[in-house]
From TrEMBL:
Protein name: Lipid droplet-associated hydrolase
Entry-linked PANTHER family: LIPASE, LIPID DROPLET-ASSOCIATED HYDROLASE
Gene3D superfamilies named in the record: alpha/beta hydrolase
Keyword terms of this UniProt record: Endoplasmic reticulum, Hydrolase, Lipid droplet
Membership in a protein family: Belongs to the AB hydrolase superfamily. LDAH family.
Principal subcellular localization: endoplasmic reticulum
GO cellular component terms attached to this protein's record: endoplasmic reticulum; lipid droplet
Any one of the GO BP annotations: intracellular triglyceride homeostasis
Pfam families: LIDHydrolase
Catalytic activity, as annotated: a cholesterol ester + H2O = cholesterol + a fatty acid + H(+)
Length: 324
């Protein structure tokens, strides 16, 4: 039986407050509410995407649609933006979160971890198992979630291009750390001025910036227009500056404790987590499921390889899903 095209699958969009911060949620599948224990139709499993940085949910739209179809539409696939990494449409009603207290630094790295845990606590029944699919700094966040909330029923965590150690020492980190930690405020005024441009001009600028790609996901272009928001870009750069300072040593203890649940996927030409990081973790955990990309995918795979990545993950998880 042929699965339907990604364009035809149910996709629900929400803008909510979580821990006092604006949050964008994309939900693939007919399940809009997974928090009601009395609902007998709850699925057994939720696939939840923990994004990289920028942590805008829209970058993963094609990815979650492809993943949902690859899973034969049997399980919900959600992506939750990072706190403050979104620009709610003007006039769109926000759903106020009254049950969870505001975090002191929700936009920082620690706050983003608590933000995801609080989202799960508020929105997902404890009876539902989880497959956490994390990208880039989302992998660090996911390991922290597993460390802080061991009660989570995590079936698998898939860590894509994981920035879980020595970020400032990576080739890209050496280039970006001075900018992010010392000069990021200088970017706010240009972004503020660009925010007044018409949407069509912003889209043209994004297309120009991504012109080097043979094929670029259209949803990535639409989503990138949000980067012209000063509030959004300030939260993105602030979080990135903390990544450079705080992501230093790999948390080998948490990895060891959860090794059988983890799949790592490293790139061959990734300037955020270079190949020798893969070599070292492979040596430290020879029994772990630690893979090296053989397809030449870029770190920001959501820009042009979402469907290819979704197909690989579906294949990796077949045995786990069969045992459910």
């Amino acid at each position: 039986m042929r699965s339907p095209s990604e364009e035809s699958v149910p996709l629900h969009e929400e803008f909510i407050y979580c821990c006092g911060a604006a949050t964008h949620v994309l939900k693939c599948g007919p399940w809009k509410d997974l928090s009601k224990d009395e609902n007998k139709n709850l699925p057994r499993l939720l696939f939840m995407i923990i994004p990289g940085n920028p942590g805008l949910a829209g970058y993963y739209r094609t990815f979650i649609q492809a993943l949902y179809c690859g899973l034969n539409q049997q399980y919900p696939v959600w992506v939750v933006s990072h706190a403050g990494h979104c620009k709610p449409p003007s006039g769109m009603e926000m759903i106020e979160d009254t049950d969870i207290k505001e975090l002191e630094d929700v936009f920082g790295l620690n706050g983003q971890v608590e933000h995801k845990l609080n989202f799960l606590k508020k929105n997902v029944s404890k009876d539902i198992k989880l497959v956490l699919i994390a990208h880039s700094i989302g992998c660090y966040i996911t390991l922290e979630m597993m460390k802080r909330a061991s009660e989570l029923q995590v079936l698998r965590s898939v860590l894509l291009f994981p920035t879980i150690e020595r970020m400032a020492q990576s080739p890209q980190g050496k280039l970006m750390t001075p900018l992010l930690c010392k000069l990021r405020y200088a970017l706010y005024m240009p972004v503020y001025l660009l925010s007044f441009l018409p949407e069509g001009v912003k889209a043209s600028l994004v297309r120009f910036a991504l012109r080097g790609m043979k094929t670029c996901d259209e949803s990535s272009i639409t989503t990138s227009i949000n980067l012209f928001s000063v509030d959004c870009i300030a939260n993105i750069l602030y979080m990135a500056s903390q990544e450079m300072m705080k992501v230093v040593e790999r948390d080998s203890t948490t990895i060891k404790q959860n090794l059988k649940k983890l799949i790592f996927y490293y790139g061959t030409g990734d300037s955020w987590c270079p190949q020798h990081y893969y070599d070292e973790i492979k040596m430290d955990f020879p029994d772990g499921d630690i893979r090296l990309c053989e397809k030449g995918l870029r770190h920001a795979f959501v820009l042009d390889a979402s469907k290819e990545m979704a197909a690989m993950i579906t294949d990796w998880l077949q045995d786990d899903l069969t045992k459910l």
